[in-house]
Protein: Cation:H+ antiporter
Organism: Limimaricola soesokkakensis
Amino acid sequence: MIQNLPLPYLLAVFALAGAAVIYSSIRATRLADIIADRTSMGEAMAGGIILGGATSLAGVVVSVNAALDGDASFAFSNAVGGIAAQTLFLAIADLIYRRANLEHAAAEPANLIQAVMLMVLLSLPLCAIAGPDVSYLGVHPVSVALFLAYLYGVRLSAQVSEHPMWRPVMTSETRTDEPEDEEEANRSVTGPALRFAALVAVMGLGGWVISQVGGAFIERFGLRSSLVGSLITAVVTSLPEFVTTIVAVRRGALQLAVGGIIGGNTFDTLFLVASDLSFREGSLYHAVGTTDLYWLGTGLLMTGILLAGLIARQREGPARIGFESVAMLGVYAIAATIEVIG
C-alpha cells in the first residue's frame, strides 16, 4: 500500500505522480487547441469543456477517494480549494503576459457566461450547508440541482459562443481566436482525440496516487483535512491548469487559457456532486466544517473579482496587470495564511 511507504518513498511517489499529471497536461494543451480548430469549437469552449474537464480529472479522483474513506472535509476542501488556486493561476498568468492585462486581451463572451455560471454553482453548496440536513439515498437534493445546473450552463455557454448577443470592443491589444489554416483545419480530429484520451487516463491515475499520499499525510502527521485538501492536494492536482494556462498564454491562445481556468473551475463544482454520492454517512454538505466553508467563500469571492475584471477590461494596471489580478493575489494570500495559522 502506498500509505505504508517510508516518508522518503512517499514523497518520491507524490512527486512522480505530480510530474506525470503536469507532463500530460502540457501535451494535452496543444491537442486541445488542435481539437478546437478542427471541430470549429473555438478556444474558449474547448478550454472550458475539453481541457478544463480533462485537467480536473486528477482532482475529482482525490475528492471521491476522500469521500469513500469518510473524510468529508478532505473531499470538500480539495474541491473548493482547487477552485481558489486555479483562479489564482490566472493572476500569475497575467503577470507573465506582458503586452497588456490578460483579461483585456482575452475578451470572449463565453468566458463571461461561464464565470457567471460558476458563481451560481458555488452558491448552491452554500445554500445546502445553511439549509436543513436532508438526503435521499445518501445524496443531498442540491447535488442533483448542481449537476443539472452544470449541464444547462454548458449548453448556455455553447449558445453564447456560437451566437453571441454582444461583442467586445476590439482594441490593438485584443487577441482574437485565430483557427489553423484551412488545409490543416480540415484534417481528421480522431488522432489528436485518441492521444488526448490517453493523457486523460494518465491524469486520472496520477490523481488516485496523490489522494493516497494526501490521506497518508493526514493520518501519519495529524494534519487537518482542510489544510491538506485546500493547500496540498488541491494545489498539486491544480498544477495541470497552471501549466496549461502558461503554455496557452505562450502559444497566444489567450481565450483557451482563460476559458480553461473558468471552465475547469466550473467542472470542479461537480467534485462535490461526485463526493456527495461517494460519502455514505449522509449529506456531505453537513459533514464539513467552517474552514471548508471559508474556502468556498474564497472561491466565490475570487470568481466575482475575476468576472469584474473580464467586464471592465482594464487595459493596463500596476506592472501591466489588471486590478482583478492584484485583488485575487491578495485574497488568496490572506486565505492561505489564515488556513496555515488556524
The chain has 14 helices and no strands. The chain has a mean pLDDT of 83. The chain has one domain: 2-162+190-341.
